[in-house]
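Lecture notes, unit on protein representations.

Consider one protein chain, 83 amino acids long.
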Amino acid sequence: MSNKKQSKKTQAKNPNQERLQYAMAQLDKHGIEYVLKNEVSGHLHCRRKSDDSLMQFWAGTGKIMGCEAKGIHNLIELLTECA
């Protein structure tokens, strides 16, 4: 099987993979620790620096638990504010 076909097959199994990789790279870039809870859904746990509270994020949808804002950049802003 060619690499292109294999890549499409892998992406079909997990369409959130690119979003997850991007989100993890951004968290790493900002020195934010995270725990990958579910690779398929892109579910991550992070801790806010100001008060160590748990923040949950889904890379596939950009959903931040308990917050109307979405996206990795908004998550990073929430995690680092008042730090």
